[in-house]
């Protein structure tokens, strides 16, 4: 498995999963699962982790976790390391339990926390381990719908807050939200992950890239780093715009706007391509910015175009 680019900062949310080595079971008994939940609890006490959602299957687990201290590596060393020690000592074995490093997707929580919680809670149904999510004991779903006393360390408030101000009503609405996809084909929200690293829209990706992505020399072999260091070519931009906009001034302006805003190419070079001055390019970029602000359809088209450029070139 290729090494992941790790992005850590205070307040970050992650969807984390880790699979058993050679796809083998990592939970073989009730006590194994109880012990893993104990390590989730100690992670909240020692390292200030905030666990929002969890689901323990046979050969892997899913958690939605928040890191107020920006210390996911420390949290995961504790959880996976302590649990591996428990598993090995109990069975007089040695060596790795999990397949490589854990996989962590940085998440725009406001946009995706609800969908991810539903995706995680429906895992036992997709795996045919239960007909309904409430039939499966080893996830946080029963806590979310109020059918058992919730663990004190499990934070339900953030996600349930989207479903109502009063807890009983929010629990009922959440159950309806999850049940609405039972037995139906639906795409995983994780299909929208950028560069195997970030789940969020263009604005969130740009925010993270600008403020928290630091590419070290040792990171350059990681496939995902290309998404943060390479730029779309003129040909790619022009081809994408031609498919989205008919020929005309708006199409020319959008090409200049994207080439200027999303690459390091200077105005002079852009102007040379279009046989116009630098100031004319600047005016074109300004016109598109104003159009985006007032025309929802153009804004949607440009957002879709940018996401398509990003995902088609950098999805790994």
Query: Strand order, biggest sheet?
Result: 2-3-1-4-5
Radius of gyration, CA atoms, in whole angstroms:
23 Å
Kindly report the CATH topology of the largest domain. Answer: Alpha-Beta Plaits
Which strand-content bin applies to the residues? 5-15%
| Shape verdict | elongated
Which class of the largest domain in CATH terms?
Alpha Beta
Largest sheet: 5 strands, mixed
Provide the descriptors you would attach to this structure in a database record.
about 325 residues; alpha+beta; Alpha-Beta Plaits; Chromosomal Replication Initiator Protein Dnaa, Chain: A; 2 domains; five-stranded mixed sheet; about 50% helix
Structure notes:
It is built from 14 helices and 5 strands. The protein is an alpha+beta fold and 316 residues long. The chain has 2 domains: 12-199, Alpha-Beta Plaits (2-Layer Sandwich), CATH 3.30.70; 231-314, DnaA protein, C-terminal DNA-binding domain (Chromosomal Replication Initiator Protein Dnaa, Chain: A, Orthogonal Bundle). The protein has a 5-stranded mixed β-sheet, with helices on both faces. Helix 10 (234-244) packs antiparallel against helix 11 (249-261). The protein is elongated and about 75 Å long.
SSE layout:
Layout lengths: L11 E8 L10 H17 L3 E7 L3 E8 L4 H19 L12 E5 L1 H13 L1 H4 L14 H4 L12 H4 L6 H13 L18 E2 L2 H11 L13 H4 L4 H11 L4 H13 L5 H8 L3 H17 L1 H19 L2
Parallel strand pairs: 4-5
Antiparallel strand pairs: 1-3, 1-4, 2-3
